[in-house]
Amino acid sequence: QVQLVESGGGLVQAVGSLRLSCASSSNIFSFATTAWYRQAPGKQRELVAAITSGGSTVYVDSVKGRFTISRGDAKKTVYLQMKSLKPEDTAVYYCKVTLGTGDYWGQGTQVTVSS
């Protein structure tokens, strides 16, 4: 069974930085597409960034140049480095892995950016 555990969220002031982690007990990130989503209160969940098994990355326009998605060397962790944070980045951030058996989500981690 695939289990994902996110961490690294918290309260930060605007223009600050945070690094989110999505950890798995196996190296599934080496052969899966992994994505970070976020959901702000009253809004739909949106894709923030994704990385394919080959290492290609995509970002939503609002975070380009500020966020970076990457994988750890052991392919058991995916990171989302967030810089120059804005209050509008406030949301619960979720990690999702897409495998042949379906999509698997973590429990989410809260990011709050104060102005």
Please describe what this structure looks like.
With 115 residues, this protein is mainly β. 0% of the residues lie in helices and 51% in strands. A hairpin with a 5-residue loop joins strand 7 and strand 8 (77-82).
Uncertain runs are none
Structural class of the helices, strands and pairings? mainly beta
Tally of DSSP helical segments: 0
**Topology as H/E string?**
EEEEEEEEEEE
The percent range for strand residues is: over 45%
Largest sheet composition? 7 strands, mixed
- Helix % is under 10%
Kindly report the average pLDDT value.
Answer: 95
For the termini, the CA-CA separation is: 40 Å
Radius of gyration: 13 Å
Record field, number of beta strands: 11
Name the shape in a single word.
Answer: globular
Q: Notable features of this structure?
A:
single chain; 7-stranded mixed sheet; 4-stranded antiparallel sheet; 51% strand
Write a brief caption for the model:
With about 120 residues, the chain is an all-beta fold. About 0% of the residues lie in helices and about 50% in strands.
Topology:
Blueprint lengths: L4 E3 L2 E4 L4 E6 L9 E7 L6 E6 L5 E3 L7 E5 L5 E6 L8 E9 L2 E4 L3 E6 L1
Parallel strand pairs: 2-11
Antiparallel strand pairs: 1-3, 3-8, 4-5, 4-9, 5-6, 7-8, 9-10, 9-11
